[in-house]
Amino acid sequence: MNGILSILLDVFRQPAVIVAMISLIGLAVQGKSISNIVQGSIRTMVGFLVLAAGSGVVTQALDPFGSMFQYAFHVQGVVPNNEAIIGTVLLKYGSESALIFFFGMIVNIILSLTSRFKFIYLTGHVAFYMASMIAVIFNVAGFNTLTLIVIGSLAQGLLITISPALVQSFMRKASAKDDVALGHPASSGVLIGTLVAKLTRSKKHPSKSTEDIKFPSALGFLKDTTVLIALSMAIIYVVVALFAGPEFIETKLSGGQNFIVFVILKAAMFSAGVFVILAGVQVVLDEIVPAFKGISEKLVKNAKPALDAPMTFGFAPNAVLIGFLASFAGGIVGMVIMALAGTTVVIPGIVAHFMAGGVTGVFSNGQAGRRGCVIGGFVNGLVITFLPLLLLPVLGNLGSANSTYSDADYGVAGVIFGYSNVAGGRILLIVAIAILYVLFYASSIILTRLENKKVKSLATNNSASSASDYILD
């Protein structure tokens, strides 16, 4: 029995396997030929692995930057990094985390079946990170193992159902479609940043899209997103490298390679990673969306797959870079504020700012153009800098570690659950989860009624407008 459970957990922790299974089932229920089923399933898995490989390349390119930044500016503190904290957590709470993750996915499907929020969260690795954080906080609260798994799974399933719903209207605006959702724990930070960006929208003085940036003919090569990203990152890397100095880089990071050559190659590697991500994204979207429709028609009508952050990058590549840089700037400002205030210093996690800042940039550009892209990205940077600071006190002994969870959804969920426990113990924590469920279903009922009312009004007026756009936008 334990062996079977272990295999199932290994499967469901692999997003490439999950999306391939979704593709296989979706194509099968549509009655596709064996050839089409095999082809679509394999292409989906390979496309997702290409995407993951690109993310790995980006991470490898960014790792030295964090070390250079810390050394150059003599900053010590907590670095938000999911991969770093998860290794520590699983040593203590591995079994609880795995079970919360597994049953939380089932809760996600049930909630999608029974509400209007029909989002199936397919980004398995970040959902697993969320499960691990829930396991930590609920262990700190003192729940016994069985109660922890039951209550934790209910919390997990609710969170990964709400997360895509928070930003779906922005996803629809940015992509000009409504067939895919964001499955990344950056959603709450993206929501705040994009809402602030939306407030800057002006009918009198509209801001042009980041994708309409005009380059002089002599700089026509900058129209190529790959080139633009490589050059921009090269400038940033070289500046930080000059502050860090050649001795540190060549002895600690580059293995003796000239420090300028080293950082320029890392900048080019970053751009290469983004290029690979975009290629993988296209393959997955081409295969998973049509296949997923087959499943949604049979299992959860009109359900949308919630996929990882890079899925949005192809909608506005320039906005990804601008949003990332603006988010990182927000992280630096937040870090300075903490240093001046004498609190624990949260050092900007470059990967988190790239992923969350990139998505915020894309969505904010869709709402308010270039101005919105910069403002939204900056606000997101502040959010994902201060939330980890609030999260640290509720993680028990892990709160004194030199790393923590990086994305906004972890911070928001951790603050709600952790401080409920601090204020009223296990009872208040359970009450908080119950209240969230009440709000979830109440929102579902209210939005459904409003949409039905709008549909009737549109039918009366013979309008072709979308009721869901009216409600969610």
TrEMBL record:
<protein>
    <recommendedName>
        <fullName>Ascorbate-specific PTS system EIIC component</fullName>
    </recommendedName>
</protein>
<keyword id="KW-0472">Membrane</keyword>
<keyword id="KW-0762">Sugar transport</keyword>
<dbReference type="InterPro" id="IPR004703">
    <property type="entry name" value="PTS_sugar-sp_permease"/>
</dbReference>
<comment type="function">
    <text>The phosphoenolpyruvate-dependent sugar phosphotransferase system (sugar PTS), a major carbohydrate active transport system, catalyzes the phosphorylation of incoming sugar substrates concomitantly with their translocation across the cell membrane. The enzyme II UlaABC PTS system is involved in ascorbate transport.</text>
</comment>
<keyword id="KW-1003">Cell membrane</keyword>
<feature type="transmembrane region" description="Helical">
    <location>
        <begin position="119"/>
        <end position="140"/>
    </location>
</feature>
<feature type="transmembrane region" description="Helical">
    <location>
        <begin position="41"/>
        <end position="62"/>
    </location>
</feature>
<keyword id="KW-0598">Phosphotransferase system</keyword>
<dbReference type="InterPro" id="IPR051562">
    <property type="entry name" value="Ascorbate-PTS_EIIC"/>
</dbReference>
<comment type="similarity">
    <text>Belongs to the UlaA family.</text>
</comment>
<feature type="transmembrane region" description="Helical">
    <location>
        <begin position="373"/>
        <end position="395"/>
    </location>
</feature>
<dbReference type="Pfam" id="PF03611">
    <property type="entry name" value="EIIC-GAT"/>
</dbReference>
<keyword id="KW-0812">Transmembrane</keyword>
<feature type="transmembrane region" description="Helical">
    <location>
        <begin position="259"/>
        <end position="285"/>
    </location>
</feature>
<feature type="transmembrane region" description="Helical">
    <location>
        <begin position="12"/>
        <end position="29"/>
    </location>
</feature>
<feature type="transmembrane region" description="Helical">
    <location>
        <begin position="427"/>
        <end position="447"/>
    </location>
</feature>
<feature type="transmembrane region" description="Helical">
    <location>
        <begin position="146"/>
        <end position="167"/>
    </location>
</feature>
<comment type="subunit">
    <text>Homodimer.</text>
</comment>
<keyword id="KW-0813">Transport</keyword>
<feature type="transmembrane region" description="Helical">
    <location>
        <begin position="225"/>
        <end position="244"/>
    </location>
</feature>
<keyword id="KW-1133">Transmembrane helix</keyword>
